[in-house]
Write a structure and sequence with these properties.
The complex is a heterodimer.
Chain A: E1 4-7, H1 34-37, E2 39-40, E3 77-78, E4 91-98, E5 110-112, E6 115-119, E7 126-130, E8 138-142, E9 164-166, E10 169-173, E11 178-183, E12 189-194, E13 209-211, E14 214-218, E15 229-234, E16 240-245, H2 250-253, H3 271-274, E17 292-295, E18 300-304, E19 325-329, E20 336-341, E21 357-363, E22 366-374, E23 379-384, E24 390-395, E25 402-405, E26 412-414, E27 425-429, E28 443-445, E29 450-456, E30 458-464, E31 478-484, E32 491-497, E33 502-509, E34 518-520, E35 524-528, E36 533-538, E37 544-549, E38 559-562, E39 568-573, H4 582-585, H5 600-603, E40 615-621
Parallel strand pairs in A: 3-34
Antiparallel strand pairs in A: 2-24, 4-40, 5-6, 6-7, 7-8, 9-10, 10-11, 11-12, 13-14, 14-15, 15-16, 17-18, 18-19, 19-20, 21-22, 22-23, 23-24, 25-26, 27-30, 28-29, 29-32, 30-31, 32-33, 34-35, 35-36, 36-37, 38-39, 39-40
Chain B: H1 10-20, E1 51-54, H2 65-77, H3 80-84, H4 106-115, H5 130-142, H6 146-150, H7 166-170
Classes of the chains: A mainly beta, B mainly alpha.
Chain lengths: ~625, ~190
């Protein structure tokens, strides 16, 4: 073929990108009330004891913040008391640091030995800052150099949810599927292993759990038809200790004699194969991209499993085990102990990866060891973490996709009116695909006994479509258009009493809350908003006490630590993005409501409120 | 302003340059058979103008309603929509905003599909039949046409793709028809 060259002036303009109108909210009478669908095995018995994490799971606060969830119980509670409702108005920025990456920053800053460690969104820079010196100068920066192409495989922006400091190492993963341990003093890699294969659509975005001499990580890619897994690496060498798939035959899922699920529907041979059409489990998703929790008391890890693929549920009749649920596993061998499925045969992209907070809580007249999990499907699950028995499930956001959870069978009672269909739009499904709450974790204060749940108030229209599996490309098969939930506000911070099974107060937010919360012993709760406000509210009333406008929206995990000077500090990353912020951080056109998996339909006004950024902010009282 | 000059022949290109670039006329490279591939860059060192590649295979896909409609169907079947949605983007960039990182001429879009691109665009050469790659190219090019955007009904664009007019690529300085509601450039206003 011949190529002919001609010359012409080059002047391409871009067409104006006019935001769509934000759709009308779903009417309040289209969702169920808490009274209609909330259920529990027993009436509340708050007099039976004080709710708190055990000392083994949440040791006394040393003023550091070495892992994103603060402790194994994942309370995100700081025992520091210098900041109070009386003085928090005096909070001022002490230093800031540009991350040099304008993508969604979802990580928690980590503080250990008076050094702060931050990992950014792709290209996953790691910074170590010296907190003992004015302005916290850089000690070192590590640039892992992940594959450029991995950017095209991240469903929901090129995010990273943070690293952990353990035994002189900072351990994190990269978008292209590496796990790396850096020497915290030098910033040099002590070991690095590649676990994910981008040509299969695998990426890594989660915060590794480091516990018991092991690093527990899993893959992302539930929208790419990956075969989901979790692995344990030896913390000192990076060598693979075990790997368990989340779908497939029992031997691959690490299901054996120890497996004692509470409900009969989870018992049987090779359910990870039999609950799928032939071979569909091999490309059925079930990624482990969210939170893993370790319980040294019961010697178990708890692993949330993501959504099944494709989103078009008609292509995968069956319960699609072991997706959209939670495994308890033996940390040493990886063998499954029990499993509970939040969303059998998920039809709405309700991943089971949200956090688990491990508490000892009064229930039915006695203290129970529970894990509390706010699911994408809008229910807050209280589960006996010893047995996998469901104690209660109550809606904390707008729900009409289910009519409650059957406490006898443990099974979600799906609302057939909100089933998704092929080529036909099901309207006003609540909650939306990103859930009544996504990955961003809640905190728990043992002083108030309340959970501080940052969440969404959004619904959606959904049409399923036949989709072909092409390795390394999206495997979705759904066209989604999201919309605000009842009331029109898209986000909410709810203080929830898990013992009485009810909200105590709630703060409405214009945009969905995509940041974690941190609770402090001074009765404060900190969180950020997508339009760039970093806020402190009263832990007992929700009253707004302080706020500061940062350079870009906040979708990260704030922390609280004791500085070298003995004073209390609060740190947070700005940098809007993620699934909900793609219209700002990504090359997305607000005129296409189906863009970013339907999120743009409800977020097209975000560019009016914030621009892309990426900055570390550290606050304290002026000393 | 530079607009809507059809360029089928090299001679017409000269006319266009005379009308748009007020400076001296450069020498015309009629053909450069030693040059391989499709040019993406608007910079041509040592030249007084931009070079573009014309691939004769592209011609059949202009003014071709069947090409864009077939391309639309293939766009879903090959999961292009998984990343680029209905033109608005997501995992991959928007295709309806008229901004072309690797060029928006049919030859350039086709080349992008064949070769892939470094930041996450897979390579499809040899995996998807070449005719289909051209049909996909025509649909992708159509997404940002004012005619396609004007046909948008509701929040899902690119459902009624307009054929790509030959004029669209004959002159990259081509502008929107006068009766379009779409404007060049973007303005974002703050909240009310």
């Amino acid at each position: 073929m011949r190529a002919l060259f001609i010359m012409i002036p080059f002047a391409v303009g871009s067409l104006a990108a006019v935001a769509q109108k934000i759709p009308d909210p779903v009417p309040a009478n289209e969702v169920f009330t808490r009274e209609e669908i909330g259920r529990a095995l027993a009436a509340p018995t708050p007099e039976a004891g004080h709710t708190a994490a055990s000392l083994a799971n949440a040791p006394a606060d040393d003023g550091q913040w070495t892992m994103p969830s603060k402790n194994y119980a994942s309370t995100r509670f700081s025992a520091l008391t210098e900041l109070t409702p009386a003085n928090v108005r005096g909070l001022v920025p002490i230093f800031t640091f540009s991350l040099a990456v304008n993508k969604g920053q979802e990580a928690a800053p980590i503080v250990a030995d008076n050094t702060m460690y931050v990992v950014t969104a792709y290209p996953n820079y790691v910074y170590a800052l010296d907190l003992t010196k004015p302005g916290a100068p850089l000690k070192w920066k590590f640039a892992p150099g992940p594959a450029l192409a991995s950017q095209g495989l991240a469903c929901c922006d090129v995010v990273n949810r943070g690293g952990t400091v353990s035994h002189g190492k900072y351990i994190f993963d990269t978008l292209d599927g590496q796990v790396i341990a850096l020497d915290i003093h030098t910033g040099k890699a002590l070991w690095r292993v590649r676990l994910g294969n981008i040509n299969k659509g695998e990426t890594m975005t989660m915060a590794p759990l480091v516990a018991n001499g092991r690093v527990y990580v899993g893959n992302s890619g539930g929208e790419m038809g990956v075969h989901g897994w979790i692995t344990a690496l030896d913390e000192s060498s990076g060598k693979l200790a075990w790997k368990a798939y989340d779908t497939g035959p029992d031997r691959d899922v690490l299901i054996g004699a120890e497996f004692k699920p509470f409900y009969p529907s989870d018992r049987g041979v090779d359910l990870g194969v039999k609950t799928w059409p032939p071979q569909a489990w091999q490309i059925g998703g079930g990624a482990t991209w969210g939170w893993i929790t370790y319980d040294p008391e019961l010697n178990a890890i708890y692993q949330g499993v993501g959504n099944p693929g494709p989103w078009n549920a008609l292509q995968r009749p069956g319960d699609n085990k072991w997706t959209a649920g939670i495994f308890a596993r033996d940390p040493a061998s990886g063998m499954a102990l029990w499993y509970y499925q939040y969303n059998p045969h998920d039809e709405h992209d309700y991943d089971g990866v949200n956090e688990q907070v491990l508490l000892d809580m009064p229930f039915g007249g006695k203290m129970r060891k529970v894990l509390i999990h706010p699911d994408r499907n809008g229910f807050l699950y209280v589960i006996d973490r010893n047995s996998g028995e469901l104690l209660s499930a109550d809606p904390f956001g707008p729900v009409n996709s289910a009519k409650g959870v059957d406490l006898k069978t443990g099974r979600l009672i799906v609302n057939p009116a909100k089933a998704t269909k092929l080529g036909e739009v099901t309207r006003n499904i609540c909650p939306t695909a990103s859930g009544a709450k996504d990955w961003n974790p809640m905190s728990f204060s043992p002083q108030t006994g309340l959970l501080y749940i940052p969440h969404e108030n959004m619904c959606m229209d959904w049409m399923s479509m036949q989709v072909n599996y092409i390795e390394g490309t999206p495997y979705v098969g759904a066209e989604v258009h999201m919309k605000p939930g009842p009331g029109g506000h898209r986000g909410e911070l709810t203080a929830w009493d898990p013992v009485r099974r009810q909200p105590v107060w709630a703060v409405k937010e214009n945009f969905p809350l995509w940041s974690a919360t941190v609770a402090t012993a001074g009765d404060l709760v900190f969180y950020g908003t997508m339009d760039g406000w970093f806020k402190a509210v009263h832990a007992r009333t929700g009253e707004l006490l302080w706020r500061f406008k940062v350079d870009s929206g906040i979708i990260s995990q704030p922390i609280s630590y004791r500085g070298p000077d003995g004073h209390q500090y609060i740190a947070v990353l700005s940098g809007v993005g993620g699934w909900s912020g793609a219209v700002v951080s990504g090359p997305v056109d607000p005129r296409d409501g189906s863009a970013a998996l339907g999120m743009i339909n409800v977020m097209s006004d975000l560019p009016k409120y914030t621009t892309a950024g990426g900055t570390l902010y550290v606050f304290s009282l002026s000393h | 302003m530079c607009s809507r000059y059809p360029i089928e022949l090299v001679g017409l290109a000269l006319l266009l340059l005379a009308g748009c670039n007020k400076g001296a006329l450069p020498a015309l490279p009629a053909e450069q058979p030693d040059r391989q591939g499709v040019i993406d860059s608007a910079l041509a060192p040592g030249m007084g103008h931009t070079l573009v590649t014309v691939d004769p295979r592209a011609a059949a896909y202009y003014d071709n309603a069947d090409a864009v409609n077939t391309g639309k169907r293939l766009f879903g079947q090959y999961n292009c929509s998984g990343c680029h949605s209905n033109g608005g983007g997501g995992m991959g960039p928007s295709l309806m905003d008229g901004a072309w990182i690797y060029g928006g001429r049919l030859e350039q879009i086709h080349q992008t599909l064949v070769e892939g691109r470094p930041n996450g665009m897979p390579t499809w050469g040899g995996k998807i039949p070449d005719q289909q790659l051209w049909q996909l190219s025509a649909y992708v090019r159509s997404m940002s046409l004012p005619e396609t955007l004007a046909a948008q009904n509701g929040p899902t664009p690119s459902q009624s793709p307009a054929p790509v007019p030959r004029a669209a690529d004959a002159d990259t300085g081509w502008s929107a028809p006068t009766d379009t509601t779409n404007d060049y450039g973007t303005t974002t206003t703050g909240p009310e």
